[in-house]
Specification:
Number of helices of chain A: 14
Strand content of chain B: 25-35%
Subcellular location (chain A): Cell inner membrane; Cell membrane
CATH architecture of the largest domain in chain B: 3-Layer(aba) Sandwich
Strand content of chain A: under 5%
CATH architecture of one domain in chain A: Orthogonal Bundle
Number of domains of chain B: 2
CATH class of the largest domain in chain B: Alpha Beta
Structural class of chain B: alpha+beta
Shape of chain A: flat
Largest interface: A-B, 18 and 26 residues
Family (chain A): Belongs to the binding-protein-dependent transport system permease family.
Radius of gyration of chain A: 26 Å
Oligomer: heterodimer
Organism (chain A): Roseococcus pinisoli
Subunit structure (chain A): The complex is composed of two ATP-binding proteins (UgpC), two transmembrane proteins (UgpA and UgpE) and a solute-binding protein (UgpB).
Shape of chain B: elongated
Largest sheet of chain A: none
Distance between the termini of chain A: 54 Å
CATH superfamily of one domain in chain A: MetI-like
InterPro entries (chain A): MetI-like, MetI-like_sf
Number of strands of chain B: 19
CATH superfamily of the largest domain in chain B: P-loop containing nucleotide triphosphate hydrolases
Distance between the termini of chain B: 40 Å
Order of helices and strands of chain A: HHHHHHHHHHHHHH
CATH topology of one domain in chain A: MetI-like fold
């Protein structure tokens, strides 16, 4: 005798509930793994220097939040007398913005050239760009450093940004996107009388909004997290970026690290990328839902 | 408004010839439909006129001016694309105004022209929408509006109705015709649909494998197709083509299938006895009656007022007939061929043979 429909419905309901429970359990576990270190940092930044120094790992907020953050912002690590987090944040922000905007501008224009124009050796140029994908910063860091020294760009913002400003990945992504723009748009624009620059500004750029937003998020974080290159390029304290500055605050000597200030600085270092992701995400989703073609 | 002249226009893509030399004279205000199967070069021809492709040799003249070396924008033509090609991020108004804006027209004039065109097309209430918020028919209207506001010398239509459903296609077809007449702008219209071609064009260019097989008015083409290709292409269902041989004296043809004798009522054809011929007869000209072709009907398509019958002759040649009424069944049937509706073509070259030729 087959089960009644009520029984079947009840079984389905039970199964759904069980599935929901398992899903949420997995999610909770994931969140815990991701969030716990950040939580520790946040909590650590609210205690005085001795609490963590004693080897305790406090799980509840302490009372020293304000002085810790004030010290990090204005003075940097006490013992090491590092650069104030305020300065480092500005440096990092300028560098990350220049890298992200520069990369997008350069890859947009080079992808536009490769896709929409016919010129001799077009594919050769494309492959040259493509091949640089296989050479990470670390591989070409010595010659690049030499070039920057010769150009007298050490200890400058230009020296920080320029070697990182070309992006094969972004060029490739834009190229793939441009290839999906129907030829008819190009032809309609030709008949409308739009030259290559107008077509770029009036049609290609607005259509690429979503891609630009997505890439901006990725590239900003890439720029923000640069470590090796700024470490080499800059020894002037006033140009220190926060990612480098943060590691310099952790001493290697016998003296006690000021973990409370370090963690406050780490929280500062976290904020701009988080802000970019949060702010751009809204824009990004809007762009996605509005997408058409 | 202008004339358009094509002089021996040829085009090859690499080593592949696509157009073998097309000549065409389009009068001011005329609507020319270029029709042909896909790959016959009809779109290429249109794109050469637009300046989107460059002719390998030959010449395109608009209003008597050679277009050699001129960019599409400098030719003063407007084009309507099959997939509309409306800029998706611009509103309907911006789409229609874009070409005018680039040409530097003052704002109030742009506004006036767009409003006028929108009124003409009944899309005035859509001006602030984005293309994605429009139906296919509305999009195609906007695409036409974009062409109209330019007030160009020449309209170029590249299969603009192919992406629409059948009902809308018929509606817009009539609308395009009305608009074109009213505005009096010389137009080229490319299509693969012979019904569209027949109903829209003042004259048709039937293209076959990179050549203009025939350039004439729709009725001329229907009544006197220049060769078997045109005969088969124009008219639906297609004309029946039957192989036959010339009778001694040239006054009649003997059908290969069944040996039926078909006299030429408009006069004898030249040639030796036994000259290979292809006889054409349109399905709608076949009649029920004795003394004709014995057909084995295999499929009957009732269309309501009439029926299309598909069958085979004794030697396997397929034959289609369109007969009034709907009471037909599969099986043997005899169909008469009225001699006055016969088309005579050369059996080798496929060219039409007139009386006395």
């Amino acid at each position: 005798m087959p089960a009644s429909t009520q029984e079947l419905a009840e079984a389905t309901r039970r199964r759904h509930r069980r599935e929901k429970f398992v899903t949420h359990l997995c999610l909770l576990l994931g969140v815990l793994i991701f969030v716990f270190p950040i939580y520790l940092t946040l909590i650590g930044s609210t205690h005085d220097v001795n609490t963590i120094g004693r080897g305790e790992v406090p799980l509840l907020p302490g009372a020293q939040a304000l002085p810790n953050y004030a010290q990090a912002w204005a003075a940097g690590g006490g013992r090491y007398m590092g650069t104030p987090a305020g300065t480092m944040l500005v440096n990092s922000l300028v560098m990350a913005l220049l890298i992200a905007v520069g990369k997008i501008a350069i890859s947009l224009t080079s992808a536009y050239a490769v896709v929409f124009f016919r010129f001799p050796l077009r594919m050769v140029f494309f492959w040259l760009i493509f091949i640089t994908l296989m050479l990470p910063v670390e591989v070409r860091i010595i010659p690049t450093f030499q070039v920057m020294v010769n150009l007298g760009l050490t200890n400058t913002m230009a020296g920080l940004v320029i070697p990182l400003i070309a992006s094969a990945t972004a060029t490739l992504l834009f190229r793939q996107f441009f290839l999906t723009i129907p030829d008819e748009y190009v032809e309609a624009a030709k008949i409308d009388g739009a030259g290559p620059i107008r077509f770029f500004l009036d049609v290609v750029l607005p259509l690429s909004r979503t891609n630009i937003a997505a890439l901006f998020v990725i590239l900003f974080i890439y720029g923000w997290n640069q470590y090796l290159w700024p470490l080499l390029m800059v020894n002037d304290r006033s140009l220190e970026t926060i990612v480098v500055g943060l590691t310099k605050m952790i001493g290697t000597g016998d003296q006690q690290n000021e973990w409370n200030v370090i963690m406050a600085t780490a929280v500062f270092a976290l904020l701009p990328p988080v802000a970019v992701v949060v702010l751009m995400q809204r824009w990004f989703v809007k762009g996605l839902t509005e997408t058409e073609k | 408004m202008a004339t358009l002249t094509l002089r021996d226009v040829k085009k090859s893509f690499g080593a592949t010839p696509v157009l073998h030399g097309v000549d065409l004279d389009v009068k001011d205000g005329e609507m020319i439909v270029i029709v042909g199967a896909s790959g016959c070069g009809k779109s290429t021809l249109l794109r050469i006129v637009a300046g989107l492709e460059t002719e390998t040799s030959g010449e395109v003249l608009i209003a008597g001016q050679s277009m050699k070396g001129l960019e599409p924008a400098d030719r003063d033509v407007a084009m309507v694309f099959q997939n509309y090609a409306l800029y998706p991020h611009m509103s309907v108004f911006q789409n229609m105004a874009y070409g005018l804006k680039i040409r530097g027209l003052p704002k109030d004039q742009i506004q006036r022209r767009v409003d006028e065109a929108a009124g003409l097309l009944g899309i005035g209430h859509l001006l602030h929408r984005k293309p994605r918020e429009l139906s296919g028919g509305q999009r195609q209207r906007v695409a036409m509006g974009r062409a109209i506001v330019r007030e160009p010398k020449l309209f170029l239509f590249d299969e603009p109705l192919s992406n629409l459903d059948a009902k809308l296609r018929v509606e817009l077809r009539a609308e395009i015709r009305r608009l074109q007449r009213r505005l009096g702008i010389t137009s080229l219209f490319v299509t693969h649909d012979q019904v569209e071609a027949m109903t829209l064009g003042d004259r048709l260019v039937v293209m076959n494998a990179g050549r203009a097989a025939q350039i004439a008015t729709p009725m001329e083409i229907w009544e006197r197709p220049a060769d078997t290709y045109v005969a088969g292409f124009i008219g639906s269902p297609s004309m029946n083509l039957l192989s036959a041989r010339l009778e001694a004296g040239g006054a009649a043809a003997i059908l290969d299938a069944g040996g039926l004798r078909l006299p030429f009522v408009d006069g004898p054809r030249a040639g030796a006895a036994g000259r290979k011929l292809t006889l054409g007869i349109r399905p709608e000209h076949l009649r029920l009656g004795e003394g004709g072709l014995d057909v084995m009907v295999e499929l009957v398509e009732p269309l309501g007022g009439e029926s299309v019958l598909h069958g085979k002759l004794a030697d396997g040649t397929p034959l289609t007939a369109r007969l009034p009424g709907a009471r037909y069944a599969d099986g043997a049937m005899t169909l008469a061929l009225p001699p006055e509706s016969l088309h005579v073509f050369d059996g080798e070259t496929g060219k039409r043979i007139e009386a006395g030729d």
